[in-house]
Structure formats: structure tokens, C-alpha cells
Amino acid sequence: MAENKNKQVATQNQAQVSTNKVTDFSLGIFGTSDNFIMANQMAKALSSSTIVPREYQGNVSNCLVAIEQANRLKVSPMMVMQNLYVIQGRPSWSSKFLIAAINGSGKFDMELQYEETKDKDGKPYSCLAWTTKNGRRVEGMTVDMQMAKDEGWLTKNGSKWKTMPALMLRYRAASFFSSLNCPELTLGLYTKEEAETIDDYNTFDVEAQVQHDIETHANQQEFIVEEPSQIEEKPAPKTVADVTAGVKEKEAVGKDTNVSTKEKKQEIPPFMKDLEDM
Q: Distance between CA 86 and CA 71 in Å, rounded?
């Protein structure tokens, strides 16, 4: 009896161990099937919340992407959801989150510093983001208003470059610094401000464009209407009676010809008659 009880206990323990899912998120949410199942359950719970951003409410797939990004960055999924924007189908970080990620990464000796200049009118003109690492100065790339003008950032729909140039210069300088010195923090994603300046981000009124094309190109080419060519009437196919009548007509014509030939032969000119008399 004791042996049977021990076997039953052992079997129950094995069954319990087999039902327990082993997750190791160091491999990512797609590393193992158990990781994916657990992450999917988390995504369903987050998608049912009403305090997450609208792009994630009721959307399990978007929540799953946010969990994957949070796992890579070792931060809370809520932090990713609050700072990851979807613009024209592209996930994009907010510049504030990017700066916070750089300052909190521990890769540098101090937080980002900004070297700024102004034009002759005292308006913000350029900005350079820099910091130090092991006592060595690490710089990004200088961004100035001439670059913003040449790249067309000033004229984009909803652009803040005209109203808040100093802030936009810092944001873009931090983005360039990240791209050059710590791209692993952005995971290859644009910032929100960068995504908004991509060419295909701007939308236009399709109906207005069509109307403009009609007004511009309508009635520009003369249309020549060709008269339909006359259709030649084909003769009706001959019937058996027509063929028979045609044969008889040819035979009659042939007889008349033979008769007239004989008559011509019988007609002798006068001078031949004289020869015959001699």
C-alpha cells in the first residue's frame, strides 16, 4: 500500500511539474513557446485596460509589440506604451523618452549637454548634443536652422520648428547623438519628430488633386471622331436553282454562238461567188 501511495504522489508531482510553464524572457518573448504564451496573456490584459493609449486599447498585437520593446529595453511596458507612437504605420519614440533613455542608460559619465548658438537677431540657430564617456568627450551632429530649412522641416504640416525652434533643435540634436553613439537604445526606430518629417507622412486632399488635374488637363487635346466605314455588302450565296439556271443560260449562249458562226461561214462574199462560177 505504501509503495502505491508513493507512486501516486510521484505521478501527481510529475503532472504538476509538466503543467508549470517555464519562462525565460532573456530570450525575448519569441524565444520559446512558453514565453510567447505568457506574453500573449499579458497583452490581452493590457489591451482590456482603458488607461493605456488608444492605439493599444483592444489591440492585442500592438500590446505584444510594446511588451517586446519593453523587454529589450528592460523597462515597464506602460512606459513604452506612453512613449511609442505609430505614425504612418511606423512605431516612433518620443524625443523625451529617447533623452531619458540616454541619460538613464549608464553608458556615459553624465547626462546629455547641449551646446547652443543664436543668430544675429538673438534667435536660436544651432544645437549640438554632447556628453563624456571615461573622461572623453562624445558628440553628436550639429543641427541648425539652415539644415531645417534645406530639409523642408519648417514647411511640414503641423511643424513646431517655427514656433518652438529651440526645443526642436534639442530634440533633433539628441536624436542624431543617439543614432551615432548609442543606436541600440532606439532599436532602429525613428523619433516622433523624425517620422513626421518623412516625405510620405504628409497627406493631401485627393479630391482636390483630382479636381485640379481635371481643370488643368481637361479639353487640352482635340478629339477627332472618325465616321464609320461603309460595310461592303457581300453577295448572297447561290442556291442550287441559281446554279442550274446559270448552266442553262451558258448552254443557250453557246448554241447561239455556233449558229451565228455557221451562218457566217455560209455567207460568201460576191467576189468568191464569181470564182465559183468560173
A: 19
